Amino acid sequence: MPTFKAIVIEKSDGGQKVRLTDFDEADLMEGDVTVRVTHSTVNFKDGLAITGKAPVVRRFPMIAGIDFAGTVETSTHPEWTPGDKVILNGWGCGETHLGAYAEKARVKGDWLVPLPKTLSARDAMSIGT
């Protein structure tokens, strides 16, 4: 399977480490929609997760990022087809479900919202969560 870039948080007895790495698409979590992530936000919760200052992350390794905007690549969900522009906020992303600080995310289609036609992905994420 192909790889993509992701910011991954890992934890061991020596503490928490954060690194930009190549992540194998086969290791994405279950979901019926795969999204090519183009934008995310930098926010307080992700700051806490990346620095390890608060117990935000519930499983390791974890891709940080609680929200994203992007384009559907593949879908078995009835509402979404490849090429659809979508946004996501929450649903445990970056906490219990692999998050948005990556080039790809696989999520449940029910978690997605259509990107309003009046907004670009950048605009949607500049508004933030």
Write the layout of secondary structure elements.
Elements: E1 3-12, E2 15-24, E3 33-39, H1 44-51, E4 62-63, E5 67-75, E6 85-89, E7 104-107, E8 113-114, H2 121-127
Describe the protein in words.
- There is one protein chain.
- This protein has helices spanning 44-51, 121-127; strands at 3-12, 15-24, 33-39, 62-63, 67-75, 85-89, 104-107, 113-114.
- By secondary structure, the chain is mainly beta.
- The strands form 2 sheets. Strands 7-3-5-6-8 form a 5-stranded antiparallel beta sheet.
- A hairpin with a 2-residue loop joins strand 1 (3-12) and strand 2.
Summarize the structure in short.
Helices cover 12% and strands 38% of the residues. The chain is mainly beta and 129 residues long.
Side-by-side strand order of the widest sheet: 7-3-5-6-8
Structural class: mainly beta
Radius of gyration: 14 Å
Strand segment tally: 8
- Sequence stretches where pLDDT stays below 50 over 5 or more residues: none
Q: What letter string, H or E per element, gives the SSE order?
A: EEEHEEEEEH
The mean pLDDT is 94
Strand-residue proportion: 35-45%
Helix content: 10-25%
| Cα separation of the termini | 32 Å
In quaternary terms, these chains amount to single chain
- The geometry reads as globular
Major sheet details: 5 strands, antiparallel
Count the DSSP helices: 2
Q: What labels describe this entry?
A:
12% helix, mainly beta, 129 residues
